[in-house]
Write a structure and sequence with these properties.
Layout lengths: L1 H47 L6 H26 L7 H16 L10 H20 L5 H20 L9 H8 L1 E2 L2 E2 H19 L1 H11 L1 H6 L4 H27 L11 H10 L11 H20 L4 H18 L2 H11 L1
Antiparallel strand pairs: 1-2
Helix pairs in contact: 1-12, 2-7, 2-10, 2-11, 2-12, 3-4, 3-5, 3-10, 4-5, 4-10, 6-10, 7-8, 8-10, 11-12, 12-13
Length: 339
């Protein structure tokens, strides 16, 4: 009997290893597929215009994709935990307006106020998480309500006209160069590496995967479920605040609608990157690929001079095709053919 139990345990462990390998392989394939699509878009664009697909164009895509890559990290953590963050537009605007109003350009040494701005944005995420966990408000409703509340508060705070100028640090972040490379590209690379390590190699990252897969099973296994559900919303809000600061440095000012264009792309980037909208599955590298793919697509379509309506139709169609190509059923069919 003892030998039988040991053999059963061995088979169970082997099956678990197989499932883990399949999961990692599937997510790796998703990220690689998105990367290939980006390359194909850039290469194909050169046949339309020699300026498209050049190194300067690649730099432009990376700089413009900086915002969505940062947002996809926070949104990806929230989706991985089984939630959804719709408060990003309001929180992005909050970060931008507070950065211009509190910091400005009068004192370059006032950069120390930027962490305070990020902390204020983090409070928005904390309130959303507490409402979802303790008051049991659906994430869709809670985060959307927080975005409306923040946007309304900012409207009253600014009287409809944001004042102040872009902080010196924000301008240097988005328009400076180091060793011949744009600072946003350098920061983007560092952020992606740290984000990947945090989500895929840290203890907290494993907690979020467990919570997103099965909350009750995670609780029984000793995972700090409440903390693992709260922190993703706080991180997402702080990422949105950071994007607001970066947008101010890029455009040299803040507006009351500066975050509106990033909500749906932040969700699309995560899903295109191979994450499950139901939680428990996904990688940050996949989300990065999805963000760069969407940015590349938007840049090429804008450069071709299409009208706004046609641009929207083309972007939506390509995103839909990308989602269909990255469906799990397709990988299962390909795997079965290979076997």
């Amino acid at each position: 009997m003892t030998n039988d139990l040991r053999q059963a345990d061995t088979r169970f462990a082997q099956a678990g290893d197989t499932r883990t390998s399949a999961k990692v392989s599937r997510e790796t394939i998703s990220a690689a597929t998105v990367a290939v699509l980006c390359v194909l878009l850039l290469v194909g664009a050169r046949f339309v215009s020699p300026a498209l697909g050049s190194w300067s164009q690649v730099e432009t895509v990376l700089i413009l994709g900086f915002f969505l890559v940062v947002l996809s990290f926070g949104q990806g953590l929230v989706i991985l935990s089984g939630g959804l963050d719709l408060s990003l537009p309001g929180t992005i605007t909050l970060g931008g307006i507070l950065a211009t109003g509190w910091v400005g350009t009068s004192d370059p040494a006032a950069w120390y106020l930027l962490p305070v701005v990020l902390a204020a944005c983090g409070v928005v995420g904390l309130i959303s998480a507490l409402g979802i966990i303790w008051l049991r408000v659906p994430p869709f409703i809670m985060t959307m309500a927080m975005s409306i509340i923040v946007a309304s508060a900012l409207l009253g705070y600014t009287n409809g006209s944001p004042r102040g100028a872009a902080p010196y640090v924000a301008v240097a972040l988005m328009k400076g160069h180091v060793l011949g490379m744009p600072v946003p590209v350098v920061v983007l690379i560092c952020f992606v590496v740290l984000g990947w390590l945090f989500q895929s190699r840290s203890v907290f990252g494993r907690y979020v995967y467990a919570v997103g897969t099965n909350v009750e099973a995670a609780r029984i296994a000793g995972v700090p479920v409440t903390f693992s559900r709260i922190l993703p919303y706080v991180v997402s809000a702080m990422c949105a605040g950071f994007v607001g600061i970066a947008l101010v440095g890029y455009s040299s000012g803040a507006t009351l609608r500066m975050g509106d264009d990033y909500l749906l792309p932040s969700i699309a980037a995560v899903v295109i990157g191979g994450s499950s909208i139901l939680g428990g599955r996904g990688t940050y590298l996949g989300s990065v690929g999805g963000a760069i793919l969407l940015t590349t697509l938007g840049t090429i379509i804008s450069a071709l001079g299409f009208e706004f309506g046609l641009r929207t139709i083309i972007e939506g169609s390509i995103v839909l095709v990308a989602l269909l190509l990255l469906r799990e059923e397709l990988f299962k069919k390909l795997w079965s053919i290979r076997r």
